[in-house]
Amino acid sequence: MAEMDVGRHCQVERCRRLDFLPFVCDGCSGVFCLEHRSRESHSCPEVTVINKRLKSDTGTSHPCSFRDCAERELVPIMCPSCEKNFCLRHRHQSDHECEKLEIPKPRMAATQKLVKDIIDSKTGETTSKRRKGAKNSETAAKVALMKLKMHAAGDKSLPQTERIYFQVFLPKGSKEKRKAMFFCRGWSVGKATDFAASLASLKNDNNRLTAKVTTGCNSLEVLE
Which part of the chain is the AN1-type domain (predicted)? Predict the structure, then answer.
């Protein structure tokens, strides 16, 4: 009776176990049992080749020239400016502080500075004119007020501390359109109105019961 050819023997010499479901190594194409299926367990020649290649590559790796950097690269990475070798992390000029790094100058720096100086000078000039104009207007108002007080009509016996000044606008048909007057701060509105009508020589019937009440003037503008 013929023997059936089932399974394969492991190619490891010290094993030679018959395995009905053998494994084929994808590196050396050898046939092995379950125990020796890995490359390391059957000393696969492909592993030896890879290890030799790694050792060879390690010997020819290129160290980084940046200070305190221990990184190495399998291929050289040269800086085109300083012509030194660097790792991937320090390959750019700014990363390894290249001694020949050129800092780009801002475009049109001189023009921008000139425009800024012109704007600053115009702003300062405008501010100065505004302050000067406001100061002149304030001074002119004070002078006008002083002149009006000098020509204001009123009871001369009133002390200066009790006087209040008004620009009185007279009714239509009067000889004057307006007249500066001063009254006592303690007077009522009625007394001040009667006094204003008297100073302006206006007809005033406010003291008559049957007469129509009139103010004797159109409006008052406070001067002080």
Answer: 4-52, 58-106
